[in-house]
From TrEMBL, chain A:
Belongs to the ABC transporter superfamily. Residues 2-229 form the ABC transporter domain. SMART domains: AAA. Homodimer. Forms a membrane-associated complex with FtsX. InterPro entries: AAA+_ATPase, ABC_transporter-like_ATP-bd, ABC_transporter-like_CS, ABC_transpr_LolD-like, Cell_div_FtsE, P-loop_NTPase. Keywords: ATP-binding, Cell cycle, Cell division, Cell membrane, Membrane, Nucleotide-binding. It comes from Protofrankia coriariae. It is found in: Cell membrane. Its main location: membrane. It is a peripheral membrane protein. The gene is ftsE. This is Cell division ATP-binding protein FtsE. The keyword Cell membrane applies. Part of the ABC transporter FtsEX involved in cellular division.
Length: 229, 315
């Protein structure tokens, strides 16, 4: 699904690259934790997958296609196949939960009748039934993140990227979001989650990819937050 | 409550085979809602844009109508004699016949008409029928007989004047259109002035649209960031901004068209029509210019927004 071959990303020549010679392959349907201290290159890696950035050298492939070579006008199609969720939720404050999800469908040209059917369904799936008409400031942090997940899901992405999705949530709420992402993964969506949450990583026992100073220092199946022998 | 366990029954429409969705843009209704909300949110800037566009287009329209007026006067005069050859009172019959024959053979001259003293006096009395004092002081003997020429090309009157001035029996050769030179100069000056002011105002309008887009793009940066994230096309992301500007431009165009129509009714038809002997431009010109400023206002504002977006919106 995702393959990175000798990927290096430098923002300014002369300084240490944000990513240095990364080789990584993520299969369809996998769940991968991306761990490492702040500034280790996790977000840069996610941005390369979204074509927010292009690698300085090396090749980033998504579904067999070189991401950097996708023409600009086709990039939106890539982004419809790669959903994302962020630490700060990124919801529109002047739209309800349903409005936020509908917005993603509206701006990608979905017909109105599809929007009307799908929005309540997907909000129900993320556990927000009955809260469709609440505004973000009337929802808890966990509920806001569920809206963000619902918004990412309506395009039926093949990959879901989550950048510190539990970073702003208390442990119990974070675990709820984690379960939601696990459920999404179980129905076949590849999930790549960057996180600092050691407890979650240790509990889930999924594949762990660790970055440090832009280099890949660990790629372990069923790993924990800290390296184990 | 579905809960995570219900994911197996997720019934979202799948993308078509091949994994690529088509690049359809936003529905018109959704687009309009975003554009209008944005216009309302930036009300002060939007009003400034509308005012600037209105002034710019009114000046542009006024300039175009002045051009129409020049054409109207031109058309009026083209139907009339452009060059008059006044004859000496002492001209002999033979001289007159030679002159007439030369004129008829001249390729620059389309039509020649001889007017004797009696006919000249009759026309004089008709032209000044509203001024009996002037008519009473003039008799047929005071007016010269003349050849009145219509030229094939009125702009070559100078050649005719040079060629026939000083011939035997010719008193002088007059280009009647030359009498109107001051009028043309005024009309031309007004036209140039109107266009120049319109150009300055267009710059102001552009600066305001640029600001409007900048403010709007800043106010909606979260919205546009989300649009990019969920895979909206560049066209879709830009469309609400272009629409916002086009709506402001169209409003300016409508106000300008209204101002021009009001000008035609109150200034041209009610005031100038009584003060001049020349025909004034008609409603066809006004409608054409009104439609023109409306289209220019809408189109140019949208285009200006497009230019501003290249700078202020990263897609």
């Amino acid at each position: 699904m995702v393959r990175m071959t000798s990927v290096t990303k430098s923002y300014h020549s002369g300084t240490r690259p944000a990513l240095d010679d990364i080789n990584l392959e993520i299969g369809a349907g996998e769940f991968v934790f991306l761990v490492g201290p702040s500034g280790s290159g996790k977000s840069t890696l996610l941005r390369l997958l979204l074509r927010e950035e292009r690698p300085t050298s090396g090749v980033v492939e998504f579904a067999g296609r070189d991401v950097a070579s996708i023409p600009d006008r086709r990039v939106p199609l890539l982004r419809r196949q790669v959903g994302c969720v962020f630490q700060d939720f990124r919801l529109l404050a002047d739209r309800t939960a349903a409005g936020n999800v509908a917005f993603a469908m509206d701006v990608t040209g979905r017909p109105r009748h599809v929007v009307r059917t799908v929005v309540p369904e997907v909000l129900d799936l993320v556990g927000l039934a009955g809260k469709e008409n609440r505004y973000p400031d009337e929802l808890s942090g966990g509920e806001q993140q569920r809206v963000a997940v619902a918004r990412a899901l309506v395009a039926r992405p093949q990959v879901l990227l989550a950048d510190e999705p539990t970073g702003n949530l208390d442990p119990a709420t974070g675990a709820g979001i984690m379960n939601l992402l696990g459920a999404i993964n179980r129905v076949g969506t590849t999930v790549v989650m960057a996180t600092h949450n050691a407890a979650l990583v240790d509990t889930m026992r999924r594949r762990v990819v660790e970055l440090e100073h832009g280099t890949l220092v660990r790629d372990q199946a069923s790993g924990g937050y800290e390296p184990t022998l | 409550m579905g809960g995570p366990g219900g994911f197996w029954r997720l019934r979202l429409p799948r993308p078509p085979a091949g994994g690529n969705e088509d690049m359809t843009g936003m529905r018109a209704g959704a687009l309009l809602a975003i554009g209008v909300t944005s216009l309302r949110r930036n009300l002060a800037t939007s009003v400034a844009v509308i005012v600037a566009v209105t002034i710019c287009l009114t000046l542009l329209g006024a300039g175009l109508l002045l051009r129409a007026q020049v054409h109207t006067v031109d058309g009026f005069l083209l139907d009339r004699i452009q060059v008059v050859i006044d004859l000496d009172d002492g001209i002999s019959g033979a001289e007159r016949d030679t002159l007439a024959a030369d004129l008829r053979a001249d390729p620059l001259v389309q039509n020649v008409r001889y007017e004797d003293k009696a006919q000249a006096f009759a026309r004089f009395r008709h032209d000044f029928r509203n001024s009996p004092d002037i008519v009473s002081g003039v008799s047929a003997a005071d007016l010269p007989a003349s050849f009145r020429l219509t030229l094939a090309d009125p702009r070559r009157a100078g050649e005719i004047i040079t060629y026939y001035t000083g011939r035997d029996g010719v008193d002088r050769v007059r280009d009647q259109r030359a009498l109107l030179a001051p009028l043309y100069r005024i009309l031309d000056a007004c036209t140039i002035g109107a266009f120049a002011l319109a150009a300055v105002q267009a710059l102001a309008a552009f600066a305001l649209i640029y600001t409007m887009i900048r403010v709007s793009a800043h106010g909606r940066r979260r919205e546009t960031a989300i649009m990019r994230l969920v895979g909206a096309t560049n066209g879709t992301i830009r469309a609400p901004f272009v629409l916002e500007s086009a709506v402001a431009g169209m409003a300016g165009g409508l106000f300008a068209a209204a101002a021009l129509i009001a000008g035609k009714i109150y200034l041209v038809d009610h005031r100038f029509a009584r003060q001049t002997a020349f025909p004034l431009f008609g409603w066809e010109a006004v409608w054409a210019v009104a439609v023109g400023v409306l289209l220019i206002g809408t189109g140019a504002s949208a285009a200006m927004a497009f230019v501003a977006l290249r700078r202020h919106l990263h897609v």
